[in-house]
Structures are given as structure tokens and as C-alpha cells.
Design a protein that fits this description.
Elements (H helix, E strand, L loop, with lengths): L8 H36 L5 E3 L5 E3 L1
Antiparallel strand pairs: 1-2
Amino acid sequence: MMKKYILPFALVNSINQAREQKYAEIAHKTEQVAKIAGQKLIDGAEKGEYVLGINGRWTQK
């Protein structure tokens, strides 16, 4: 028979807060990588080419 463990609410809450903080850190890093990659693509575009900016608009370089 499987034993059931009941964790105190404070412990569960603490674990969830730590997870939320870690997920936020990962999301921030991912956002930074995406910005850097986008900037590299824009920088590599030739003069006269159109690039899609972070604002969602196409701009001729």
C-alpha cells in the first residue's frame, strides 16, 4: 500500500515560490537571447533590405 505524505501548506508555498522565481530567471535569459539574435540578423542585413523590427514594423535598412 502506498503511503500518503501531507506537506504543510507553508512548505508547498515555499517550493512554488522558488519554482516561480527560477522560471522567471529562465524566461528573462530566453528573452535576452532572442533580442541578441534579432539584432544580429538586423546588423547582417544588407543596405536596402527590409527588416522586421521589435515593434512589428518592416523597415528598410
